[in-house]
């Protein structure tokens, strides 16, 4: 019986750089090993909330338990500096 394919999200996170996110077939064993050996970790996505007017959504990425975990925070929208 053939093994069912599953899509895995792997991410490489370096603070200050864009997130490198890959969707990889679980049957791609050699490629998965190559990615993991080059610093890719499992990615735990979180649904982005919808802010109310005057608010902004800020993404946070952390490495927790060997996984890249995405979270969101709703903050007040920054006010632009007044021009003179």
What does this structure look like?
This protein has 84 residues and is mainly beta. Helix content is 11%, strand content 43%. It contains 1 helix and 5 strands, in the order ββαβββ. The chain has one helix at residues 29-37, and strands at 7-12, 20-25, 41-44, 55-64, 67-76. Strands 2-1-3-5-4 form a 5-stranded mixed β-sheet, covered by helices on one side. A hairpin with a 7-residue loop joins β1 (7-12) and β2. The longest helix is centred in the middle third of the chain and has 9 residues, at 29-37. It is elongated. The N and C termini lie far apart (73 Å). The mean pLDDT is 91.
What order do the helices and strands come in, and which of them pair?
Elements: E1 7-12, E2 20-25, H1 29-37, E3 41-44, E4 55-64, E5 67-76
Parallel strand pairs: 3-5
Antiparallel strand pairs: 1-2, 1-3, 4-5
Overall pLDDT: 91
Q: Which range best describes the helical content: under 10%, 10-25%, 25-40%, 40-55%, 55-70% or over 70%? A: 10-25%
Q: With helices defined by DSSP (H or I, 4 residues minimum), what is the helix count?
A: 1
Q: Note the beta-strand portion.
A: 35-45%
Cα-to-Cα separation, first versus last residue: 73 Å
Strand order of the largest sheet: 2-1-3-5-4
Which word captures the global form?
elongated
State the order of secondary-structure elements, H for helix, E for strand.
Answer: EEHEEE
Number of strands: 5
Structural class: mainly beta
**Tell me about the biggest sheet?**
5 strands, mixed
Gyration radius from CA atoms, angstroms = 18 Å
């Amino acid at each position: 019986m053939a093994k069912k394919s599953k899509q895995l999200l792997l991410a490489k996170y370096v603070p200050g750089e864009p997130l490198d996110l890959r969707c990889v077939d679980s049957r791609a064993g050699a490629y998965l090993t190559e990615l993991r050996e080059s610093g890719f970790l499992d990615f735990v996505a979180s649904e982005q909330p919808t802010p109310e007017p005057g608010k902004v959504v800020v993404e946070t990425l952390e490495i927790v338990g060997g996984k890249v975990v995405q979270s969101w925070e709703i903050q007040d929208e920054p006010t632009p500096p007044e021009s003179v």
